[in-house]
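Budget justification note: compute hours in this period were largely spent on complex prediction jobs such as the one shown. Inputs:
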Amino acid sequence: MDKKRLEALLRQVSQGSLSVRSAAERLAALETAKLETDKLEYARIDHHRPLRRGIPEVVLGEGKSPGQIQGIVEHLIERRAPVLVTRLEASVGETLAERHPIGRYDPLSRTYFARSAKTRRKPRPGLVIVSAGTADLPVAEEAAVTAEAFSLVPDRIYDVGVAGLHRLLEHLPRLRQAKVVIVVAGMEGALPSVVAGLVEAPVIGVPTSVGYGAALAGFTALMGMLSSCAEGLTVVNIDNGFGAACAARVILQR
Amino acid sequence: MDKKRLEALLRQVSQGSLSVRSAAERLAALETAKLETDKLEYARIDHHRPLRRGIPEVVLGEGKSPGQIQGIVEHLIERRAPVLVTRLEASVGETLAERHPIGRYDPLSRTYFARSAKTRRKPRPGLVIVSAGTADLPVAEEAAVTAEAFSLVPDRIYDVGVAGLHRLLEHLPRLRQAKVVIVVAGMEGALPSVVAGLVEAPVIGVPTSVGYGAALAGFTALMGMLSSCAEGLTVVNIDNGFGAACAARVILQR
Amino acid sequence: MDKKRLEALLRQVSQGSLSVRSAAERLAALETAKLETDKLEYARIDHHRPLRRGIPEVVLGEGKSPGQIQGIVEHLIERRAPVLVTRLEASVGETLAERHPIGRYDPLSRTYFARSAKTRRKPRPGLVIVSAGTADLPVAEEAAVTAEAFSLVPDRIYDVGVAGLHRLLEHLPRLRQAKVVIVVAGMEGALPSVVAGLVEAPVIGVPTSVGYGAALAGFTALMGMLSSCAEGLTVVNIDNGFGAACAARVILQR
Amino acid sequence: MDKKRLEALLRQVSQGSLSVRSAAERLAALETAKLETDKLEYARIDHHRPLRRGIPEVVLGEGKSPGQIQGIVEHLIERRAPVLVTRLEASVGETLAERHPIGRYDPLSRTYFARSAKTRRKPRPGLVIVSAGTADLPVAEEAAVTAEAFSLVPDRIYDVGVAGLHRLLEHLPRLRQAKVVIVVAGMEGALPSVVAGLVEAPVIGVPTSVGYGAALAGFTALMGMLSSCAEGLTVVNIDNGFGAACAARVILQR
Amino acid sequence: MDKKRLEALLRQVSQGSLSVRSAAERLAALETAKLETDKLEYARIDHHRPLRRGIPEVVLGEGKSPGQIQGIVEHLIERRAPVLVTRLEASVGETLAERHPIGRYDPLSRTYFARSAKTRRKPRPGLVIVSAGTADLPVAEEAAVTAEAFSLVPDRIYDVGVAGLHRLLEHLPRLRQAKVVIVVAGMEGALPSVVAGLVEAPVIGVPTSVGYGAALAGFTALMGMLSSCAEGLTVVNIDNGFGAACAARVILQR
Amino acid sequence: MDKKRLEALLRQVSQGSLSVRSAAERLAALETAKLETDKLEYARIDHHRPLRRGIPEVVLGEGKSPGQIQGIVEHLIERRAPVLVTRLEASVGETLAERHPIGRYDPLSRTYFARSAKTRRKPRPGLVIVSAGTADLPVAEEAAVTAEAFSLVPDRIYDVGVAGLHRLLEHLPRLRQAKVVIVVAGMEGALPSVVAGLVEAPVIGVPTSVGYGAALAGFTALMGMLSSCAEGLTVVNIDNGFGAACAARVILQR
Amino acid sequence: MDKKRLEALLRQVSQGSLSVRSAAERLAALETAKLETDKLEYARIDHHRPLRRGIPEVVLGEGKSPGQIQGIVEHLIERRAPVLVTRLEASVGETLAERHPIGRYDPLSRTYFARSAKTRRKPRPGLVIVSAGTADLPVAEEAAVTAEAFSLVPDRIYDVGVAGLHRLLEHLPRLRQAKVVIVVAGMEGALPSVVAGLVEAPVIGVPTSVGYGAALAGFTALMGMLSSCAEGLTVVNIDNGFGAACAARVILQR
Amino acid sequence: MDKKRLEALLRQVSQGSLSVRSAAERLAALETAKLETDKLEYARIDHHRPLRRGIPEVVLGEGKSPGQIQGIVEHLIERRAPVLVTRLEASVGETLAERHPIGRYDPLSRTYFARSAKTRRKPRPGLVIVSAGTADLPVAEEAAVTAEAFSLVPDRIYDVGVAGLHRLLEHLPRLRQAKVVIVVAGMEGALPSVVAGLVEAPVIGVPTSVGYGAALAGFTALMGMLSSCAEGLTVVNIDNGFGAACAARVILQR
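Corresponding output:
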């Protein structure tokens, strides 16, 4: 529910034109739209999220059936709301793109993104995305595509792992111009520490599940980033490129 | 080494007045000051960090002997550099404060902070620090004292755990004015998710080691914060109030 | 073995009409029915469980072969005993429903339930089931379908995660009327803490394996629920919607 | 804040005698009492909890300084509110009992409990507490003392581990009369499964940190209880006798 | 190498008819038969194991290619050595049984066993195998089939979990006649504790990977069995029915 | 309760001279003696255990107060029952030995053992105890002293770790005469595998908490022993020398 | 970039014929070749690695798409650089071998290796590779094939697990001639400790993921090797035969 | 036993002057010296280890009583064997140094080292020891002192963590002259990866238990080092400076 409607409603209560009880019921009723299939409401979609957090509707594809994803996307596209679906299997993503060609499926980042021209905003610079190895690309690109959906313009610096420092150091000027840096790394996850020691901007570490054995499906990288004494470094969940882009956005929008 | 001296030195190389080899040696020699005890250099102090990262010298008290801490603090105070010591046992902290009354030891946050009047900067508002329970206070205050050392002005909202939501909700207006929020919570660590769902600012979660059994010495809170789907939330290490304040600072300085 | 037969038998012993040894053998022989395939008895079915625990026969589908499941269900339906099969793969469940149309297979909760009209009991109100996200639905529905098999009438409040508190708060009146609340949540698993802080009824937390990385396949949610300081909250195994419904039933039957 | 005052306040808003903004401020102001030491408010005490959850104020002694505990207890005793302090070290507990002889410190359960005669309620029967070994007694007694503070009358069945089944079986009649059973067990934590198979009442398992090596400081017992297929069994945190008593209370008050 | 040949060889050394060096080489050469495929010797088969440990050749099917398994079995059957293959996929096992009909593939225990009539020994009684649930059967049967291959005669007591104690107690007389008991259980793994409290014979606990979530793929059962204070109980690896039968055999052969 | 009394009692029931109900009560009443302190019965001592399991009363000192230990020991010594206390702190053990000089406290194994001359049995040979390093001695000696309390005669082979194989191999003849071998080892815990490959007797592995870092307080040794493919090897809990001796006893008594 | 070009460039700077800034840009530009697909540079290949580490280009096949692998291999073969691809699925490896028959795919070690005759170097002896069981062969062969790609000549001693010590001891002379020993073992991972106790050369332990349950997918072996007190033993990641061969190479090249 | 005596003995066997059996007994008898206290032999000291592994006797102080340490050191000093004691508490170490002033106790590395002038060997250069932070010094110095006891001459480069790369890079020339590098690092443990990317020599990573929370007492650093893709890097146990020095020695002695 948007602010204006809320204030109007409270004013009605203060003016006596709305009973306390009715106000409470109306607040509940207006708030969210529900999708129903076979009597089970499976998702409450909040059209007003942009007002509250400044971020378009994002649907996590993982753990939802193709039918559920399709239903939510359709509902949003009909209402001309921009929509980003993440963690989307190729088969489902390609079907979505066929049915709703206003959007595009990207197999590397496993995302579908649709936006009508009207909702586009002025691009905002300042984000640099750094990644360690070839196998970290899908996560780095999930961050990059999400950032682009938020009208950011990520500068990508890829394949610069710590075991070959010279590769990273040659990009120092680009790094030092960043207002926020997302650093994506698997295995020992040391890259964010090194980068945070080189720049003055906030650094968001994204551990990836790349590596085997002692890499512990990303937990070694996660724990390594959290253990770092490099200042200005914070961390998101393993493989959570999306979350890193969200954090970058709220930092840059300040 | 500051920028001017670096440029001067490189200019000498380009003018032929300094050999490549000598330049390299000089770069190494100038960079850092070393403290030595019994022939073992135990710390390299970088007077130029403010230039590189904009943060005064901070000394982690944990894992250092009282003599080492005393040596570093003395070295910095002599050079009029501001210094913050964290994770400092009461006995060592009180001795420090007696010897160097320019600084103050705070037993709750376990910090010693010293700064000459000259190095003070204009306070910068916008940081809110939220904490869940009484037992989380030492970590919240480590963040708050560190933030103050960085010339930030933290607004504290304490003892507002998720099992009594009304306590948190009454502070909504203060929360919504924040430019950065640090949320400190132990046990299930749910508070940062709830806060991040209520504000538009970046939220930095600090899990604490408060709780027993299934709280896993802070790992349940840590994993909970990382697993959250609340957008704009990033996380630092368990009990790392200092790290959260560093991250808040680099975000606010943008 | 039912109580009457047991008492009769013990009376025979006390009257000398049955030897101690014979009594022991008879007790063993009468107690349970065994199903045999290829000489290996694979399941002892206890027709008298309702007497002992007040709960109809439930078969865990996981870890049993289709033939074993089919055998047990047939055995029970022949004896007109109500039967609930949980964790049932779609292919096996649909075959069961074709062969024994007295029951129904529900793909979302992955259950098959069959009951003859006679065994129906009067529905008992008071259970509310709350779930956090769309991906938690299968577990929430396992609880709901099980509860219905126990003649409870669950009131479902779904998709009300802690990162959007307003969704939950609008249902406060329904929540506060509950006599028992089951709360199903994955990721950080914070919802049961929040709900237990809002109601006076017993709350049963069900962590789900929803989430990735730091969600640790449900263990973060499990540990979070156990670490909560919200009073009146107890917990069952990850994804154990069935167990939560059993606990709700024994609480409500008091 | 109690219900009457809340309704009065909302009525004032609806009658125009209170502005929306003032109402919000007043709601926040009235809700809780705060204790302050050295400018840091360290605890918000909610005098109205009995209204909301029906449970007297309980203070977790662990993680609080003796001064903080003393302050909270004094505040409550002055207001004639009953107070229970748990996880209390002997030295602090004995000092409390000396200063406030209205209450008693119990070294086995490590609790201090104070209640004026007026606040006593009619005792409510139906709770049985079972424990496995001598070393589990402190946790079982934490549950028992807490239950007594809630006006329950626990029936104690102690030292009946699963490796000597006959000890448990001789108490079957007492067990079967229970309306709620709390079962406290360390090591392999099998006792709650066995008890839940013998009774029709809800069973609350409390794993303890008793045992060494593979007992994993209580996690083996915790995981064992959660893995059990015995119906009607739910679980609380390791060593959380207090939480089990809280859950028993909300079940019995229904 | 058998004892006689070893003594002969050492006698030759002591008589000077064989040099120290030649003796060492010969010892190495005679000891084992090697199977080679594409130049890589992939298994050293020790025909003389029966002499050393009294146990026929057993081949772990897991981790070996069908060709490797086939090669080893053929080699042994040609030499008329009895052979047991465990952890054998159905397709490979059935092919084996077709090619070498002297042996039989058992799909429940996933074993292939072949023995010529000559190598049969007199059956030895005294082993009882107990299992908790239907899903534990494959492991219980791996133990039983292995025991039969070792000429033991296991008495099977199946589906007697601790949540229904009466099922177990009715078999007390059979249990108390055992000279060794193998107890197979998943989930909380409490059955071996209970059995060891009822019998005077050595009890070998076999945890199984049956269960989900908190059952931790068998580790909860494993840790539970190890934590038990029941005397006379020792434990083998998760799902290791084979290992339990080996241990039973060396105990019974004494 | 001993067998004769049980048979007598059951005969009375069958003859009608005792009611079913009275028989049940009497069975319960006779079975165990209880010790009480301050109204809390803290231990049920079973004088009849020797009948049931053939093992004298053993008291685990860990987790019991000095007063509780003293009470139990006194109770048993008065009744002339042999008693072994394990995991006993030196101060408590020495006090016990002073008060009850019939027994002896051994500081290395941390045990107190008392037996009147009458209860001594004929020593039984066949047990060999092997240990890896000096730091494993306390656990090895807990096994040895316990074994001696059970009238076994352990042959000790100590300080024979796998990194110096020749030390072990020189004892091969003693090893090969064993009827049961207990092998105590920390760190990687490889010694039981090696020993089990060299002997035909049952081998009981006892992992110890010796080692640091990757030794994981004994879990690496425990998991290593469980993972071994050496046949005839079973395992007890970390540092559980007592449990290994119990298992050895039930094997040797066959 | 090779040394000569680097020195030339720095000389230009010192002679003033190249500006500081240009030098920095040129350094960055010359350093690496990039491969691009659809605008995303996915791999930076460093032709100069041999100069820096003395090791030919190695491509980790895992986590890369067939197209990416094919692109990198083609790029290198065109430039006549030797290339080794590890962790390569059979289908991809065989396609590579068909397209570039200069190289060979080995299904056991899952490697593709290609080298033109010119780049061959003189073989260097001194490496012995020991492995415990048949299932460890793929890892042992990954080490062996990698070593051969580095012009080493591995001496293979396979199938010599610690549960049958005599198999290992017969190879003592070959072991004692080694200059470096790689020891590959799964399950309890005890073999490297035993070998390191027998030889004077550096021993590199490679734990494998062979085993089930308590073998913890290789972590038991890894932790066991790290816990060993055998001197001269260091360890690489689970299943990392490649890394062991790299380490052997840098040791032997000294 | 030294080689000459062994050959002599075997020659006697081959000449018939010594029976096979006597030879075996003599071999066992001569091999080791035993220290006995109260009938329990607690350590077998092998005077001939230098012959077998080229490393003087080293005694791990941890887990041994002061008396045991004293006994072993005395035994060795009497025989003029050099001795190094590690992990030695200050009080014990200082007492040792007073009694045996031929050796010295070093409190930082917690070692006692004694060697008579005669046993000194020619120092061998080539080892560089790098450490990350001040708190890592005790482990780095354990490695350095051990190396010196082995007649190596370690070059120390300390306090060069990855969050301040320039500190490390200034020492590149010293690093590149190394024949072996030991790198000691806690927290995220990234330093060995970075160093191994810069040098051509073998790198031995030593994780330390420095750090808190997510540093997991050294396991994050350990797992990070094992996960690294830097070539030539192998790893030892957490805090195992001693083990790293042993490995460096066997590499350098080649």
